[in-house]
């Protein structure tokens, strides 16, 4: 039962990754591309968590945590650059 649910979740998260990648490449504005990048790393975190559940390994959870921190910092830096024109004050 759990294997079926994980397989369905893999397909859905993979579809979400493809759609957010499309929005990242074809986004009309820079803010849309930043939001697509944010969604892309959140979907990759979900994919890593699902892979960790499927393989029963805690290593994937640590990798997901690292991607979350780096993605947050990247989104913050891009947003500051978009608002102010520079990242550091």
Give an account of the 3D structure.
- The structure is a single chain.
- The longest helix has 26 residues, at 30-55.
- The chain has helices at residues 2-26, 30-55, 59-84.
- Helix content is 87%, strand content 0%.
- With 89 residues, it is mostly helical.
- The termini are far apart.
- The mean pLDDT is 90.
DSSP strand content: under 5%
Q: Compute the number of strand runs.
A: 0
Query: What's the Cα radius of gyration?
Result: 15 Å
Biggest sheet features:
none
Low-confidence stretches: none
Percent helix range: over 70%
Query: Kindly state the mean pLDDT as a whole number?
Result: 90
SS element count, helices: 3
Q: Classify the secondary structure makeup into a structural class.
A: mainly alpha
Order of helices and strands: HHH
The N- and C-terminal alpha carbons lie at a distance of: 53 Å
Q: Could you say which overall geometry the principal axes of the C-alpha atoms support? A: flat
Task: Compile the SSE list and pairings.
Elements: H1 2-26, H2 30-55, H3 59-84
Helix pairs in contact: 1-2, 2-3
Primary descriptors:
single chain; 89 residues; mainly alpha; 87% helix; flat
TL;DR of this structure?
With 89 residues, the chain is mostly helical. It has three helices and no strands.
